[in-house]
Amino acid sequence: MRISSIRMAGALVAGAACGSANAAIIAAWDFQTTTNGGTAVVQSSSSNGALSPNRYVANFGTGTLYLDGTNGSSSFTQTNSAYEITAFSGTATNADTSIGMSTAADPFSALAIRKGSLIPAGANGKGMVFKFSMSGLESFSISYVTARPSSSGFTSQVLEYSTDGSTWSSLGTHSPSVGNFPASTVTSFSTAGLDGAATSYVRLKVSGATSTAGDVRFDNFILSATAVPAPGAVALLGVAGLVGARRRRA
Q: Residue ranges per domain, the chain?
């Protein structure tokens, strides 16, 4: 009877542990839904985009996207004659409707980075930063949709991660082909380097734009991870396995 009880408890814990392995949303941005205090893209009334925000609270989950020079990000210019942040129509691709992300491709519903003209390089080499927590989580991944409408837009996207906002490690590189938002192309990267980090950062740097109006567009960012099983659950799984092995040998 005692062995049966232990095996049953082990089975229950195994089920709980398997359930915790499912990916959970840390934070998501669709740039048009204001659920849970999220901030949508705001286009300037003068239609030049110069007043688009340079900081975006996650529309879902908990996290913030910085383009204001803090938390390891670059300071993107918002001067009327040289603005580097703007907005265009978005896409339904990668929108997770199970958490409420919008599938409407409304005007000004996607974040865009523009080369600008304040200095020769403009926004080339600049990076935006996501800040979030990986406490109790592992196996981080980020997915998003991006578009480079013209050949003069940014040709390279370099992604890096950090646990202190100053020392960065490579996450991956993406080179978008020319074209507006495709129907089903999703860019994604993952790493174990942020496992359990109380404060985590992911930086996305752009480069390769050749004209003032050259841009790259982003929509439906999703940051996710899996929950780490509680130590007690792991220990009980070990006990259940040991008991099962002894029973088989008997």
A: 1-21+229-250, 23-228
Within 10 angstroms of residue 75's Cβ, the number of other Cβ atoms is: 13
This prediction has a pTM of 0.83
Question: Pick from 158, 174, 165: which is nearest to 197 by CA?
Answer: 165
One-letter amino acid for residue 247 of the chain = R
Q: How far apart are CA 219 and CA 202, in angstroms?
A: 16
The length of the chain is 250
List, for residues 201-214, the tens digit of each pLDDT value. 999 999 999 999 99
Q: Which of 4, 26, 3, 18 is nearest to 233 (CA)?
A: 18
> Is 246 exposed, middle or buried, given 0-12, 13-18 or 19+ CB atoms closer than 10 A?
exposed
Q: How many CA atoms, within 13 angstroms, populate the side-chain half-sphere of residue 104? A: 9
Q: Are 161 and 193 in contact (CB under 8 A)?
A: yes
For residues 62 and 82, the answer to whether their CB atoms sit within 8 Å is no
Class of domain 23-228: mainly beta
